[in-house]
Inverse folding.
């Protein structure tokens, strides 16, 4: 007996000699499934598709980083993975072995390398178990906001458009208090909860 799929199910199939992961967009009376492949919609016999592997759970900042670069200039998934890894290793070289700040995108990639590769190639879900709210420090509110960023080991105010996904711009309350204490500042007065920003 073949598995019955429903509209919205994530499935995998072989199309043009490649394993593709996609979503069912239509099912007919014979339980054949239509998938919305990148190039065009295509019907598949139910026995020719299988459930897709489970999505990797990633923190919000990692998901934001991946989504900010994914799908740029028509790269294949493999080319995107190469791009992400190249950027990651360049970042490691720039740090001269000093490591990544705990909780940063680079830190998560270092500790979850295999999951990062799977997330880039097959997709991901944002881990909703993180309950601590995040804040942005909005210094100047305009179209291109000026925010507080953690760039490597320094804290700087820059335009939001300057961030290519490597600078940390969302902080927990504890992190903001630590920054204020270390720099004798009051950035907590400019903290805006991320949900309020969006």
């Amino acid at each position: 007996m073949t598995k019955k799929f429903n509209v919205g199910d994530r499935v995998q199939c072989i199309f043009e000699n490649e394993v593709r992961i996609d979503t069912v967009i239509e099912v007919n009376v014979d339980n054949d499934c239509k998938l919305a492949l990148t190039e065009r919609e295509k019907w598949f016999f139910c026995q020719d598709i299988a459930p897709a592997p489970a999505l990797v759970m990633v923190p919000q900042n990692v998901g934001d980083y991946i989504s900010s670069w994914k799908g740029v200039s028509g790269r294949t998934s493999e080319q995107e993975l190469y791009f992400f890894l190249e950027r990651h290793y360049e970042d490691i070289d720039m740090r001269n072995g000093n490591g990544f700040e705990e909780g940063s995108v680079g830190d998560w990639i270092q500790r979850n390398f295999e999951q990062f590769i799977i997330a880039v190639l097959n997709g991901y879900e944002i881990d909703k178990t993180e309950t601590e709210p995040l804040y942005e420090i909005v210094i100047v509110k305009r179209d291109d906001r000026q925010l507080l960023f953690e760039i490597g080991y320094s804290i700087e105010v820059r335009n939001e458009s300057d961030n290519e996904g490597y600078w940390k711009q969302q902080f927990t309350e504890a992190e903001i208090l630590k920054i204020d204490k270390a720099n004798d500042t009051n950035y907590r007065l400019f903290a805006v909860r991320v949900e309020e920003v969006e």
